[in-house]
Amino acid sequence: xxxxxxxxxxxxxxxxxxxxxxxxxxxxxxxxxxxxxxxxxxxxxxxxxxxxxxxxxxxxxxxxxxxxxxxxxxxxxxxxxxxxxxxxxxxxxxxxxxxxxxxxxxxxxxxxxxxxxxxxxxxxxxxxxxxxxxxxxxxxxxxxxxxxxx
Length: 150
Prior knowledge:
With 150 residues, the protein is mainly alpha-helical. It is 68% helix and 0% strand. It has two domains: 1-68, no CATH class; 69-129.
């Protein structure tokens, strides 16, 4: 995405996601198909609003414009991690409630819980402490030479 300016990246992604939602609503909307137009207008307005806000000189604008520093990116990373935890808890809670009420409808919550749990475990294996770094093994098995000569 280097060919798209940083200020335009997130608003463009939100606009495309909103237009995708509007298109899906138009395809399966039935009698309420006209709401797809409302969804598309709101999505485009949201994208334009994000683009305008991303031009301001503030921490929030830097995050909206994909030009945040390390501290701001860490805040975004923690927010995404919290969203993942909340999604996993919501999927598990929905699974428990659905199993208690109607077992045949529980597969959606089970699938969502499995995806979030797998993503969590994959993140642990990718970013966690697995095998030690090569720098940790530089003197493994060898005694350090004494600075005192005999």
